[in-house]
Amino acid sequence: MTTTPPTVLAARERSRSRVSASPPTPNGRRRFTWRTLSVWFGTAVLLCILAAWIYPFLWMVSAALKSPLEVFDAGLGLIPEDPQWSNFTRAWVDAQFGRYLRNTVIVTVATVVIVVVRCAMAGYVLARRRFYGRRLILVLLVATLFVPTGYTIIPVVDLATNLHLLNSLWGMIIAMSGGAHVASILLYVGYFHQLPRELEEAAIVDGAGFLRTFLRVMLPMAGPVTATVTLMTFMATWNAFFLPLVFTFSRPDLRTLSVGMLAFVGENSTDWSGMAAAAVISLLPMVILFVVLQRYFVEGIAGAIKA
Question: What average pLDDT score do residues 141-155 get?
Fold first, then answer.
């Protein structure tokens, strides 16, 4: 015969006391209390905020299935009268979004790899090594958070021109991964700072050097932060517009998905339904990646903030 633990009995008693706080009416039904009303009110408010938050996305998906005239005739309606699947065909074939998707995948994957390796090593050194000027470097990194990205476009383009990297995917990759990425570095600094030093000491006893200790011991333990940085960098690179636009002025075949949206803008008209279909195609990989990594994303943010 099993016995119920005291903690479970106490929890059941607290639950009964909460239920009994709202005494039943003479007909057997329980009365509404202020607490029940506040819960219902809060739920209604959150549902309204949720509806307002996701409505633009739902409208975009709906517009991708409408005809060009129905996009504006239907107003705020979400249900298309006759779904136009040809919008996706027009976006994929006529507007060459298959090529733009390939360019975007190449640029995004390469940028994510470079940023993760660079930020992880920088965060490891800043968190675990003591050297002169360490605090000054951290202050300068934080200061760069307040510099708008567009202000650095001129020196970046000038440097890429001198290195003959303009109008190339490699130039775009180096430019995208060459930013400060301060938030990613600080996440690694916070996570590595909380790890015990006994791990490094044990690796040194086993004969591991700096690089081997970082790659074989420390970096695998920072999996949640790596997933967070991967997701943040992926989203920023996938949605980037200004820098890919400048780097593909003379090479439209190297455009990314975000820049490729310009293919639907004409001199006298704009294909809004085709643009909505292209936007849905562009968002699908990012939504899938976020669903897969959302648990690690939350763990990485929580672990770095806790440190």
Answer: 78
Q: Show the tokens assigned to 230.
A: 């991967």
Q: How many CB atoms lie within 10 A of CB 171?
A: 22
The Cα 261–Cα 214 span in angstroms is 42
Encode pLDDT of 164-173 as tens digits.
Answer: 888 888 989 9
- Confirm if 257 and 278 have CB atoms less than 8 A apart: yes
301 near 228, Cβ under 8 Å?
yes
pLDDT single digits (tens) 225-238: 888 898 889 988 99
Task: DSSP for 65-105, please give it.
Answer: TS-HHHHHHTTT--S-SS--THHHHIIIIIT-HHHHHHHHH
Residue with tokens 């809060």: 42
Q: What is the structure's pLDDT at 2? A: 44
Helix, strand or coil, per DSSP, at residue 208: coil
